[in-house]
Amino acid sequence: MTFRSLDTADLAGKRALVRVDFNVPMDGGQITDDTRLRSALPTIHFLSGKGAKVVLLAHFDRPKGKRVPEMSLKPVAGPLSDLLEQPVAFADDCIGAAAQAVIDGLENGGVALLENIRFHAGEEKNDPAFAAELAKNGDLYVNDAFSAAHRAHASTEGLARLLPAYPGLAMRRELDMLDAALGTPVKPVLGIVGGAKVSTKLDLLNNLVARLDRLAIGGGMANTFLAAQGHPVGSSLCEHDLGDTAREIMAKAAASGCELLLPVDVVVAREVKPGVATRTLALDEVGDGDLILDAGPKTVERLLAAMDASKTLIWNGPLGVFEVPPFDIATVAAAKKAGALAEAGKITAVAGGGDTVSALNHAGVADQMTFVSTAGGAFLEWMEGKTLPGVKALEV
Ligand code: ADP
Ligand code: MG
C-alpha cells in the first residue's frame, strides 16, 4: 500500500478537509471520554503548524440523514478548543453557505469544526453530489478516522476521489502497526483470539489460521472447539451446532502449518458471581452444571511460553469472563506478559477490540503494548483480511 505523505504536501494557506472520529461518549451534553479527540490532535497540530486552514468533518451518533438537535457536534467544539489550546470555529452545517462563511473567516492555521455530516442522507449513501458539495470546502482531503474506514461513506470514501487524499498521522500509525502485526510481521507470529462466541469471529479465525505460526484460542469460543473434540463442557457457553465449523478450522490450521493452542485445563464455577468458589479441572473432569469461565494455569503457562518464543503478537478477545474476578486471572496474566515483553522490545504486541481494550486497561498494561487499536469494527474487519474502503480510497 502506498499513500501520499503530508510531509511533502504544500499546505500553507490551503483548506484541509480532515475526517476525524469525534463520535465520543456523552452524558447530558458532557463528554465522558475524550480519547477520540486526543487522537486527532497530532494531525490538527501538524496541519495548523504548516499554515493550513483545518476544516474538521465528523459524524456523531445515528441521526439517519436528518437534523437531530441532540446529535449536534456543537458540544465538542469547546473541549476540542481546550485540548488544542486554540479557538475552534463551529459551523452549523457541513455544506453550503453556513460552512462557507466559517471557513472563509479562518486565518492560516485556524481550525473549524463542521456540524454532524450524518445530518445529510448523502453521507451514508456515499452520494457523489453530496461528496461534491463537501469537496467545495477543501483543497485537499485528510482521513484520520481509521475507525470509520470500514464504511464507504461520502466523508470516508467519496471525498478521497475528488480531492488529493492523504492519511492523517493517527491513520498512518494505525496502518503501520496493523501491517507490523499481520501484513508483513516479523516471525514467528502468535495470535490470541478469545471472547464469547465462535460465530461472531469465523472470518477472523479463518484468516488467522492461514497466516499465523501459532493461534491460541480462549474464552467462551474455546468451549466450542473442546466440545467438537469430544470433551465435556457442562453448562458452559458453547455453540454445539458449530462442531463441524470448529473441525474445519482445525483442519485448515493443520493444513497451513498453524499450531492451534487450545486449553489444556480450565477454571469452572457453578455461577458467574464475583468471588465464587472455583475449581481447576483437567479437560475431561468438567461435570454437568459446571461453567468454564477461565483458562487454567497450565494453559496460561503454555501461552506465556509461546509468547516468549514469538516476535509478534496479535490479540483480540479476552481469555475468560474478565469482568467478574477471579475469572480475570488468565487474561491479566497474559496481558502482563505481553506488556512486559513489548516494553522490553522483545515482541511487537498489537491488540484491539472493545472488551480487549477494557481487559488491557483492567490489567494496567495498555500503555506497555506496542499498539492498542480502539477502532472496533474497522480493526476486526482488517484482521479478517477484508479491504477497508476508506483505506483503499487513499492509496495512490
Ligand atoms: P472484543 O470486544 O474484544 O472483540 P468479545 O466481545 O468477542 O471481545 O468477547 C468478550 C466477552 O467474552 C466478554 O464479555 C467475556 O465475558 C466473554 N467471555 C470470555 N470468556 C468467556 C467464557 N468462558 N464464558 C462466557 N463468556 C466469556
Ligand atoms: Mg465485545
What report would you give on this structure?
This protein is α/β, with parallel strands linked by helices and 396 residues long. The chain has two domains: 6-170, 3-Layer(aba) Sandwich (Rossmann fold); 185-383, Phosphoglycerate kinase, N-terminal domain (Rossmann fold), CATH 3.40.50.1260. The chain has 14 helices and 17 strands. The strands form four sheets. It has a six-stranded parallel beta sheet, with helices on both faces. It is elongated. It starts with 14 loop residues before the first strand and ends with a helix. The relative contact order is 0.12. The model has no long low-confidence stretch (mean pLDDT 97). Magnesium ion binds next to helix 12. Magnesium ion (MG) binds at residues 354-355.
| Highest-level CATH class of the largest domain | Alpha Beta
Poorly predicted spans: none
Query: End-to-end distance, in Å?
Result: 8 Å
Task: Sketch the major β-sheet.
Answer: 6 strands, parallel
Label the overall shape. elongated
Q: Strand-residue fraction?
A: 15-25%
Oligomer: single chain
- Tally of DSSP helical segments: 14
Helix content: 25-40%
- What is the CATH architecture term of the largest domain? 3-Layer(aba) Sandwich
Number of domains: 2
Give the overall average pLDDT. Answer: 97
The beta-strand count equals 17
How do the strands line up in the largest sheet? 5-6-4-1-7-8
